[in-house]
Write a structure and sequence with these properties.
Blueprint: E1 2-7, H1 13-22, E2 27-30, E3 44-45, H2 47-55, H3 59-64, E4 69-70, E5 72-76, E6 81-85, E7 95-97, H4 100-113, E8 117-119, E9 122-130, E10 133-141, E11 147-156, H5 163-168, E12 172-176, E13 180-188, E14 195-200, E15 203-209, E16 215-222, H6 226-230, H7 233-242, H8 245-252, E17 255-256, E18 261-263, E19 268-271, E20 274-275, E21 278-280, E22 286-287, H9 295-314, H10 320-346, H11 353-362, H12 366-377, H13 382-385, H14 388-398
Parallel strand pairs: 1-2, 1-11, 2-8, 5-14, 11-21
Antiparallel strand pairs: 3-7, 4-7, 5-6, 9-10, 10-11, 12-19, 13-16, 13-17, 13-18, 14-15, 15-16, 19-22, 20-21
This protein binds flavin-adenine dinucleotide.
């Protein structure tokens, strides 16, 4: 009998297993994948996520994975470009765009070092229940026989299509259908100054430096274009990138090193993340468009919130139901504003006259422009910074 079984061992599951393991709980960590392995995902981690890696003692491993730090961000809007330095968070100045092959391995190893029992290549096929309460899992290792394992709590860190969420019929709220679709690959021979994004009519290209001298080159379009994009993925990917001469010049000097990967299944929703004997963390509990690159950072924060809630419930300091209710509330408070900002940004609308006027003012105020990028990284409140009053203040000051 385990205290918890965690299904999914990537950026939500491994941290929650690690944090509970460090608190002395008996943890079984399961994933049908093995590590290191890749998954369809970008991997920009802004400073609040990096601050957690530092707190957990794992930042050195990320740095050692041969991933360059990122400080500078540029957003090219066609006739002008905003560029700035990301504001620090908790004393952390650098963001990192660390590949999932490296990141997830670091996280899994940390969970095992904390005492979690890891089973890779293990598929969970069913959740065990008794009188409406989750009591364990049924599953099998690759080619192995079906076995049952029991736990006080089953945690679904099993991503967007979570088996735990489906079995619990976890209520969804603030739901919005997918707004964008994505294709990306990795290129050698490209040198960018930090992260560079190029917004054009209903599409965007993003370049970010990652491990081993490679650059992650992503394109995204509004979701209504998906069928058209899919009819010629390679052609549309390259055409979208090359419509910006600066990006075209980057590609001229570079070489694509890997196949194109894509994703259009990017809905937006919150799920109730707990019930009798179960909890959700990461994408399983809260999913949003990747345009603001929040998923990994959100998974880290929620791993901390959930492990604290479970600890206070297990130890008897709090009633478990109340502790988990508070977990949901804290998660929602932390992300509500960013959720709206993300959905708005994912529409890929080019700025209207009012926003262009604001951007022109930002171009004359570097500090304000840095704060603008802080909204993206989640270190500056977007509702305050982008409020009509604050925008007017910046416009007046620039005038
Ligand atoms: C195109 C794209 C770009 C993105 N870019 C960024 C970015 O730049 N920055 C950022 O922060 N986020 C980004 N994201 C979001 C990020 O990928 C997710 O938020 C993050 O992967 C969520 O982690 P997770 O651990 O919750 O789930 P996942 O990474 O989906 O992991 C779930 C794990 O559960 C396992 N699993 C599922 N079901 C079972 C089962 N039944 N039995 C056993 N194992 C199971 C899977 O094998 C998997 O390993 C991007 C996403 C996409 C699609």
């Amino acid at each position: 009998m385990y205290d918890v079984i965690v299904i999914g061992a990537r950026c939500a599951g491994s941290p929650v297993a690690m944090l509970l393991g460090r608190k002395g709980y008996r943890v079984l960590l399961l994933d049908r994948a093995c590590f290191p392995s890749d998954t369809i995902s970008g991997h920009m981690i802004w400073q609040p996520g990096i601050a957690r890696l530092q707190r957990w003692g794992l930042l050195n491993n990320v740095v050692a994975s041969n991933c360059p730090p990122v400080k500078d961000v540029k957003m090219d809007l066609g006739s002008y470009a905003l560029s700035g330095v990301l504001p620090p968070s908790e004393g952390v100045e650098d963001a990192y765009c660390v590949r999932r092959t490296a990141l997830d391995k670091i996280l899994v190893d940390a969970a095992v070092a904390a005492g979690a029992e890891l089973r890779e290549r293990f598929s969970v096929t069913a959740i065990l229940t008794e009188n409406g309460r989750f009591t364990g899992i049924r599953g099998h290792s690759r080619g192995g026989r079906t076995i049952d394992e029991k736990a006080r709590v089953v945690i679904g860190a099993d991503g967007l299509h979570s088996l735990v969420a489906r079995t619990a019929v976890a209520p969804e709220y603030r739901t919005r259908p997918a707004i964008t679709c994505w294709y990306y690959s990795y290129w050698s021979g490209i040198r960018t100054n930090g992260v560079q994004a190029y917004l054009r009519e209903r599409c965007m290209s993003i370049l970010a430096p990652t491990n081993d001298g490679l650059t992650l080159v992503l394109t995204l379009w509004t979701h209504d274009q998906f069928h058209e994009i899919r009819s010629d993925i390679e052609g549309n990917y390259l055409r979208t990138l090359r419509q910006v001469p600066e990006v075209g010049a980057f590609l001229e000097g570079g070489r694509r090193e890997e196949r194109l990967r894509g994703m259009a299944d990017v809905p937006n929703f919150f799920r109730k993340p707990y019930g009798p004997g179960w909890a959700l963390v990461g994408d399983a509990g809260y999913h949003k468009d990747p345009v603001t690159a929040q998923g990994i950072t959100d998974a880290f924060r929620d791993a901390e919130l959930l492990s604290d809630a479970l600890d206070s419930g297990f130890s008897g300091n709090r009633n478990m139901e109340q502790a988990l209710q508070e977990y949901e509330q804290k998660r929602n408070d932390a992300v509500s504003e960013m959720y709206e900002f993300t959905c708005a940004m994912a529409s890929l609308e080019t700025p209207n006259a009012e926003m262009r006027q604001f951007h022109q003012a930002l171009l004359r105020d570097q500090q304000a422009m840095d704060s603008f990028f802080g909204c993206l990284a989640g270190t500056v409140s977007s509702s305050e910074f982008l409020s009509p009053e604050n925008r007017q203040k910046i416009i007046d000051a620039a005038a």
